[in-house]
């Protein structure tokens, strides 16, 4: 893997885990393509969004949380199959980025509608997409892509997963939606902060002699 390729790859600790290495190696030996795995992440996000939107049953919230994590597993394995598995394609960068933006939007917008504040879900989705735009823009001007920030993708999805689990308990006990409101607000605020910090880092890097 070249330096440019490494610089554009999100650092993920679980990439070195035994299960991820074994699963990606097995997938690489099959007819599964990394681009197909990337598209599968949209399916899991869609299932999660449907579970969030279509029912307030506590089990549905747990199912949505599982869907969020399966989406992340796809995001992990597609890159491993592409690079470690030797199945990289020229269109890979498109499949690596576009499905992520769709999956983020499906889940975050659904959470906003489910908690009664649709605008908050749309705001969270917009700011999440903007964090990615700033990162990719940095790469387009010759800098290493910046995956830092308090609400990068893995942290957004971790907060959403925790919020869905909390909402499951809240639905069972109180039949209210405060957990999802708080979750959406935290993701939106954290994404805004991430946009600011990444932009500051980008500007400083470009101005550095």
From TrEMBL:
It comes from Rhizobium redzepovicii. The lineage of its organism: Bacteria, Pseudomonadati, Pseudomonadota, Alphaproteobacteria, Hyphomicrobiales. InterPro entries: CDP-OH_PTrfase_TM_dom. The chain crosses the membrane at residues 36-56, 106-136, 181-203. This is CDP-alcohol phosphatidyltransferase family protein. Keywords: Membrane, Transferase, Transmembrane, Transmembrane helix. Its EC number is 2.7.8.-. GO terms for molecular function: transferase activity. It is an enzyme of class 2 (transferase).
């Amino acid at each position: 893997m070249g330096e440019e390729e490494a610089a554009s790859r999100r650092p993920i600790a679980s990439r070195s885990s035994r299960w991820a290495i074994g699963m990606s190696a097995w997938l690489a030996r099959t007819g599964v393509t990394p681009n197909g795995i990337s598209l599968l992440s949209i399916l899991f996000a869609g299932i999660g969004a449907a579970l969030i939107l279509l029912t307030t049953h506590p089990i549905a919230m747990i199912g949505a949380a599982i869907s969020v994590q399966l989406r992340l597993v796809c995001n992990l394995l597609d890159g491993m199959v592409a690079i470690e598995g030797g199945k990289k394609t020229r269109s890979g960068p498109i499949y690596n980025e576009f499905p992520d933006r769709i999956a983020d939007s499906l889940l975050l917008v659904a959470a906003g509608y489910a908690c009664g504040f649709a605008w908050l879900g749309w705001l969270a989705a917009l700011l999440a997409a903007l964090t990615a735009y700033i990162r990719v823009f940095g790469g387009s001007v010759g800098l290493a892509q910046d995956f830092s920030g308090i609400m990068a993708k893995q942290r957004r999805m971790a907060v959403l997963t925790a919020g869905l689990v909390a909402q499951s308990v809240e639905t069972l006990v109180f039949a209210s939606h405060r957990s999802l409101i708080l979750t959406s607000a935290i993701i939106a605020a954290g994404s805004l902060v991430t946009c600011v910090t990444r932009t500051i880092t980008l500007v400083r890097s470009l101005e550095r002699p």
